[in-house]
Amino acid sequence: MKFRFFKNVQQKDRKIHKKVNITVLSSIKSKMVALIGLLLLFVCIGFGLVLYINSSNSLISKVEEDLPMIAQQSAKVIDSRINGNFLALEIIASYHEINNPDINPY
Question: pLDDT tens, 77-86?
């Protein structure tokens, strides 16, 4: 693949347009470097996609396994806190001042 550019060259107060040929991938070395680079790029992208999908599936299965257990533990914690509040209310309700209907609050 050849690209042609014009290069301005000044010689004694006049401009001359000189053709400059720039060839891309003209040698076997540059072709092999480009081919190996592309091959390495595709292999890395492939490995990256496989590892991403594998880790995503692993994470989803682990979350599905652990979420019910966490929900049960949270329910037990909430139940114990509610029972603690009921116990405190029962103790307050058992006071003689609160339990006696003959006492005038005013």
Answer: 999 999 999 9
